[in-house]
Amino acid sequence: MGLLIGRVPIARKNPRGLVRCCTCLLGVLVSTWVLAAERPNIVLILADDLGFSDTTPYGGEIATPNIARLADEGVRFSNYHTASSCAPTRAMLLTGVDSHLAGVPNIPEAIPPGQRDQPNYHGTLNRDVVTIATLLQDVGYHTYMTGKWHLGHGPGQLPFHRGFERTVTMALTGSDNWQQKTYLPIYDDPHWYADGEPLTLPRRYYSSEYLVDQTIGFIESNRGDGKPFFSYLPFLAVHLPVQAPRALTAKYLGRYDDGWSVLRAERLQRAAAVGILPPGVAMSEMASTRDWQALGPAQQRYQAKAMAVYAGMVEAMDLHIGRLMRYLQDIGEYRNTVFVFTSDNGAEPSQPINGGGPLARGYMRAWMATAGYDTAYETLGERGSFVEIGPSWASAAVAPLAYYKFYAGEGGMRVPLIIAGPPVSGHGEIARAFSYVTDIAPTLLQLGGATAPAARYAGHRVRAPSGRSLVPVLADSAARVHGPEESIGFELGGNAALFKGDQKLVRYGLPLGDGEWHLYDIVSDPGETRDLRTTQPALFVELQQDYADYAYANGVLELPTGYQQQRQVAINGAQRGFRNGLIVLFLTLLVLLPLYVAYRLRR
Q1: Cα-based distances in Å from 247 to 255, 308, 313, 373
Q2: I want to staple 59 with a disulfide (CB 3.0 to 4.6 A). Which of 53, 71, 275, 424 is the partner?
Q3: Which residue intervals of 125-166 are DSSP H helices?
Q4: Which is the catalytic residue, given 22, 86, 191, 518?
Q5: By C-alpha distance, which of 556, 546, 542, 437 is closest to 498?
Q6: Burial (CB count <10 Å: 0-12, 13-18, 19+), residue 251
Q7: 398-423: b or e for each residue (b if 16 or more CB lie within 10 Å)?
């Protein structure tokens, strides 16, 4: 470190040079460590729609002792960002390449018709990128995946064909957690696969338990052969429908009786108390948060239990993460395993049951009846139950941040990130430097001794990762891998952001946002309460130009006027259902027509 300290005066003139110098030096040290020691196993755990403050290391009240253990043994990132929706995050997480260039600028269910035929707008992982599973497999790793994919399920698109040697995969946006059935009428089936072939789930099934069982089974099948493993574990928790075992839900009954605004304030205080955010952080009020006191007693009781189910689902995920950790301890692999725990985006605000107009609600309730779902209070969260937490609880789940899933506010993009295991130097440290989802792939490749292709792979051109390895942060939590002059852009469904240093240029999309650009210092004001666009006009213009450069370089397309992601999902789903209905009618006619002709001939 004396060498780095001696260069600090130079860094004042060229701060990016210091960052690159530190990165190169630490990269050499880590590469030497990888070659000299046993290569680490890597477990990448991805929660679905988990809010920033849902776990105890980030100020939450939900019991998550195993995630807390990883935080105590590793590094917590307080300024880590993803895309604000699941599939784009997953594409960047596994490749290190911007979601637009990887072919997944949005979830495929939300891409408007005018864009679906455009290059890189299909909503499926394209062949211009190489997954970290492929690259780790190239250097001798076993590669496993168990959980949600959502990057395509056509020919050659499943994870079994993208570098994972063993897989148990739910291919689409979501699925029931107790049964093998879809959770919304936009699909007929959730499409489960095992090693690329259709899979029938066991009768006794709960998603978090089952996925960890499969993970352990994959690791056990090759135990003792001397090869390290990379295990990608993307949970269904806590995506819709929110479901949890009754015993875990019961632990939280009564905990949320004071409502979402009280919980949001409590989490703000605890986030400061655990050090994940600085004291005195301001918190904005969300227009979509209802007045708890305006609800009747029966409504309050129901809503409080819905959040209790959510808490039980988070705890269930943590419980089964703990089973995996204990298994690795039992076989002597725990100390040589790098754990990465994070979420794909902020909390889910959608209300498929209670949202929309009377026609939409009536349709959903009619579909739910045919699909075997109910919303009875007594069995809320159990088999056959459908639970949603809605925007009010979602605001509490991301406290003290603004907005939530789908939006480019910090509540939609800033999520937990914990990295534990070799070669983390400090335990229980908090890394405050800005980091982005594209940084995960370079980090894991460096730790595994693999190299990302710069331009070509397997005989054809590919895109190199744009992220930076976080190894300097793991070795010294004061380090930052992105220089103050480096800009990182983001766009998804009309929501957009540009990060540069401590500043963030952001545009909130419809229906909650105004579609205008705003400017915030997200280090001192992570709640995005003080707009700086009028007090720092030169910086405001500079970041707008940086965003325009990003959009051009990454092929960002303009959206139709009035576009809304959730509404587009409903429209696309209705169109798909209509087309499927026509197909069924056509096939029915094909079957009945010969019978009718035969009948007429007999007459």
Answers
A1: 15, 11, 11, 20
A2: 53
A3: 132-138
A4: 86
A5: 546
A6: middle
A7: bbbbbbbbbbbbbbbbbbbbbbbbbb
Task: Please report, to the nearest 10 degrees, the dihedral formed by the alpha carbons of residues 279, 285, 289, 294 taken in order.
Answer: 100
In sequence order, what DSSP letters do the residues of 184-231 get, joined into one string?
STT-S---EEETTEE-PPPSS--HHHHHHHHHHHHHHHTTTSS--EEE
Query: In the block, which residue shows the tokens 């929309």?
Result: 356
Q: Is 86 a catalytic residue?
A: yes
Q: What is the architecture of the domain spanning 38-483?
A: 3-Layer(aba) Sandwich (3.40)
Question: Which of 279, 481, 298, 506 lies closest to 411 in space, CA to CA?
Answer: 506
For 65, 491, 566, the CA distances from 510, given in Å and listed in that order, are: 38, 14, 10
Residue 576: what pLDDT? 62
pLDDT(118) > 50: yes
Per-domain boundaries in the chain: 38-483
Per DSSP, what are the bridge partners of residue 214? none
Strand pairing class (503-507; 495-500): antiparallel
Per-residue pLDDT of 278-329, as tens digits, reads: 989 999 889 999 999 999 999 999 999 999 999 999 999 999 999 999 999 9
Residue 150 falls in the annotated catalytic set: yes
Token digits for 281?
A: 């952080």
Q: Sheet of 487-492: strands edge to edge?
A: 487-492, 495-500, 503-507, 517-521
Find out whether the peptide bond into 423 is cis, omega within 30 degrees of 0. Answer: yes
Predicted TM-score (pTM) of this structure:
0.90
Q: Got the DSSP string for 71-134? A: HHHEEEESSEE--SSHHHHHHHHHHSS-HHHHT-SS-GGG--TTTTTSTT-SSS--TTS--HHH
- Say if CB 475 and CB 75 are below 8 A apart: no
CA atoms within 13 A on the CB side of 584: 7
Select the more confidently predicted residue: 357 or 158: 158
Out of 81, 122, 142, 150, which one is annotated catalytic?
150
Lowest-confidence pick of 138-147, 160-169, 472-481: 472-481
Q: Identify the pLDDT of residue 602.
A: 53
Cβ neighbours, 10 Å, residue 516: 10
Query: Sign of torsion, CA 288 293 295 298?
Result: positive
pLDDT score recorded for residue 600? 53
Neighbours of 505 (CB within 10 A): 25
Any idea what DSSP says for residue 253?
T
- Whether the CB-CB separation of 495 and 406 falls below 8 Å is answered with yes
Q: CB of 473 within 8 A of CB of 481?
A: yes
Half-sphere exposure in the Cβ direction for 487 (13 Å, CA):
19
